[in-house]
Amino acid sequence: MVPGVEGGVTVHQPSGEQLSIFDAAMRYAQEKVPLIVIAGEEYGTGSARDWAAKGTRLLGVRAVIANSFERIHRSNLVGMGVLPFQLPPATDAASLHLDGSEQYELTGLDDHAKPAQRLTLTIHRKDGTREFVALTLRIDTPAEFEYARRGGILPHVLDGLAAA
C-alpha cells in the first residue's frame, strides 16, 4: 500500500519507512508483530501452489483475508498453518478505506471453530475509530481444523510421531 509504487514494496508501521516486503516482514518478526494479508478475488490463482503458501508462512503471515480463494491455494494455506478468512460480498480494501496504517484484531476464534464460522475483524484506525467486519472462516474440513489447531501439517505429523 505505497501510493505510486508498484512491486514488492511496503511501508513499515509505525516508522513510515519504505521497505521491501521481505525486509518489512523480518522487522515485524523481530518486533513480534503477527502479520495478515488483505487480498482481492481468487487469492492464490496462478501461484506456485505449495511454495506460495510456504513463502507466506515463512514471512510470518498468520492469516489471509480475501474476497475469495483459489481452491487448492486455500487448502495449502491451511496446511502451512495460515488461516484463510473470506470478506463479505462487495467488501474489499477500497470499500474499507484502508491505507496501511491500521491495526487489526480477529475475535471469535476458539477451539470449537466450525466450517463457515463467522468471526469479527476489528479495524483500529490511527484516529482512534474502529470498524467491525464480519468474516467467514474458510477452514472447510475436520482434517483442516486439526492442521490449523497444530499450526499446519508438519507440526501435526510431528506431534503424532512424538506421541507414538
Could you give a quick summary of the protein structure above?
29% of the residues lie in helices and 24% in strands. It is an alpha/beta fold. The termini are far apart.
Largest sheet: 6 strands, mixed
As for the number of domains, it is 1
Low-confidence stretches: none
**Assigned CATH architecture:** Alpha-Beta Barrel
Q: Tell me the name of the CATH class.
A: Alpha Beta
Q: How would you spell out the order of helices and strands?
A: EEHEHEHEEEEHH
Helix/strand/pairing category: alpha/beta
Q: Helical residue percent?
A: 25-40%
Head-to-tail CA distance between termini: 47 Å
Indicate the overall shape.
Answer: globular
C-alpha-based Rg, rounded: 16 Å
Q: How many strand elements?
A: 8
Mean pLDDT: 89
Description:
By secondary structure, the protein is of the alpha/beta class. It has helices at residues 21-30, 50-58, 71-79, 142-150, 153-163, and strands at residues 9-11, 18-20, 35-38, 61-66, 83-86, 103-107, 118-124, 130-137. It has a 6-stranded mixed β-sheet. The protein has a two-stranded antiparallel ribbon with strand order 1-2. It is globular. The relative contact order is 0.13. The mean pLDDT is 89.
Key words describing this protein structure:
alpha/beta; globular; Aconitase, domain 4; two-stranded antiparallel ribbon; 5 helices; six-stranded mixed beta sheet; 164 residues
SSE layout and pairings?
Blueprint: E1 9-11, E2 18-20, H1 21-30, E3 35-38, H2 50-58, E4 61-66, H3 71-79, E5 83-86, E6 103-107, E7 118-124, E8 130-137, H4 142-150, H5 153-163
Parallel strand pairs: 3-4, 4-5
Antiparallel strand pairs: 1-2, 5-8, 6-7, 7-8
Helix pairs in contact: 2-3, 4-5
